[in-house]
Predict the 3D structure of the following.
Amino acid sequence: MTRQLVIKVTAGTDAPERCNQAFTVATAALVSGVPVSLWLTGESAWFALPGRAKEFDLPEAAPLEDLLNAVLAGGQVTLCTQCAARRGITPDDVLPGVRIAGAPTFVEEVLHEGAQALVY
């Protein structure tokens, strides 16, 4: 059985350390060979847009743009449907590889056998 890590990040520039922790853990898991699904919710929804992760700055942390690109390359990145709608973000706006999905998809992922969910 392959374990999967499902990470929901709810913070963005409003709580930069918490935000960065989620992306760092997602990337570390991928490097370790663990399948990762990263959910962008709340203020982290903005990172689904081109250029937004590059603007994020946290001292002593890996660049968020690099972490996001790693997850896009090796895992799944999902933008919350309602979070996108509240911010006026459409499927045409997001980075290539980012899907928009809602709570039913999140629940399905976290209920898979072997899945581990983390919320930041």
